[in-house]
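In this supplementary section we document a worked example of the pipeline. Step one takes a protein sequence of length 303 as its only input; no multiple sequence alignment statistics are reported here. Step two produces a three-dimensional model, which step three serialises into C-alpha cells for compact storage. The input and output of this example are shown verbatim.
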Amino acid sequence: MAKSYVWLDGRFIDSEKAVVPISTHSLQYGSGIFEGIRAYSTAKGPAVFRLKEHAARFIRTAKIAGMQLGCSQKELEEAILEIVEKNKLASCYIRPFGFYNDPRIGLDTEGKKISVAVIAVPFGNYFGDKDKGITCKISSMRRINSQILPPQAKLSGNYATSVMASKEAKNSGAEEAIMLSTNGWVAEGPGENLFLVEENKLLTPSKESDILLGITRDSVLKIAESIGITVEERLVHREELLTADELFFSGTAAEITPIVSVDKVRIGKGKPGPITKIIQERFTEIVSGKDPEFAHWLTFTKQ
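The serialised model returned by step three reads:
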C-alpha cells in the first residue's frame, strides 16, 4: 500500500503518525471545525472544485467558533493543493479540520492549542448509483438554528443531529433523511441541500429555513441561471415534497443526487426527472473541466 500523508500545522507527515490523545478536547466535546472539498480528474490533471469558496467558508467558521487558526486562507489553499499532489490523487475528497489539540479534560478552551490538519482520500459516489436515485424519510430530528448552534458554521458538534437523522432514516429502510427546521419548514438533508422541481421551475429552501448555504447549492443556482431555469428561494412546506415533480440533493459528497421517494411516496414518475438530469449532466461536465463557462471554478494542482 502506498504511503499517504496528512498536512498538520504546516508540515506533511505520514498519516499513520498523525495521532492525538484520546482525551483531546475536540474529540470529547465536538469543538472542531471542518470543510468538505472535492478534487476531480480532468484532461489537464487533478482540479479542486471551488477551492477559494471552500477555504473562505472554513475561515468564516473559525471566526464564528472563536478559533485563531494560525494559518491564512492562502496558506490553507496551498496546503489543499499540495496534499492532493503529495498523495498522488486525482478524484478525491479533501477534509480541512481545525481542532483543539489538547488532552486536558474540561470545557474551557482558553490556552488550549489549536491545530489545523488537511487530509485527502480517494472518493467515489457517496450514494452509489446516482442515476437510479435514492429514497428518503422525513426525520423526527430537527435542523439546528442560531438559538442552538450556528447553522452557517461547519462545527463538528452541529452534525450530531445529522448522524442521528441519517441513522433513523436507514433504520426505517430509507437511504437518507430530510430534516425540517424547528418551525416545521423543510430544511435540508443531514449533509446536503435540497431542491424541488415544480412546473419546470427550481425551488429550494431559503436561508430562513436554517439551512447551510452550501457551495454546491450555490453552484446549482448559477448553473440553472446560465441555462434559463427559473429558481425560487423560499420557505417550503413539508407536503410540497410529496407533490413535487422532481427532488434532488446537492452537496460536496452527494454532488447531484436524485430523490425518487419520500416517506414511501413516489416523487413524480419514481425516477430521476429531466431537469435533475440536466443539472446533473452540466455539473459533471463542469467538474470534469469540459465547460469553459465555469472553468474558473477549478483550481489545478501542479502534478
